[in-house]
Specification:
The chain has 4 helices and 3 strands, in the order ααβαβαβ. It has 107 residues and is an alpha+beta fold. The chain is globular.
């Protein structure tokens, strides 16, 4: 089995307004926020409304994310989560098939 090296990967995407509203509603739901806080042992967390599509690992994207989002990965003040597949399905988002969301740690 050989590996295919990806030199360029287009990580841009656009969500329809209704899909984005539904997704943001799910990502800011009280039970979901509480679950994230519990997992991270925090008092509060805030959705930044920043989303990105994971990208293949490469020399230019060693963290598997577009370079402009690496600042959040390296910061102690933010956390990045994979959006649950059922949220993507409920929001009727099928392309891209995976997204990540960025949250700001409050306490």
């Amino acid at each position: 089995m050989s590996l295919k090296i990806v030199k360029n990967f287009d990580s841009s995407f656009t969500l329809e307004n209704q899909a984005q509203e539904t997704l943001f509603s799910l990502l800011t739901g009280e039970a979901f926020l509480k679950q994230i806080c519990q997992n991270l042992q925090l008092q509060e967390i805030e959705f930044t409304q920043l989303l990105f599509q994971p990208v293949p690992y490469s020399l230019l994207t060693p963290k598997g994310m577009p370079a402009e989002f690496e600042q959040y990965y390296q910061s102690e003040d933010y956390t990045i989560i994979n959006i649950p597949p059922n949220f993507m399905f409920n929001a009727k988002i099928f392309k891209p098939s995976r997204l990540c969301a960025i949250y700001k740690k409050i306490g």
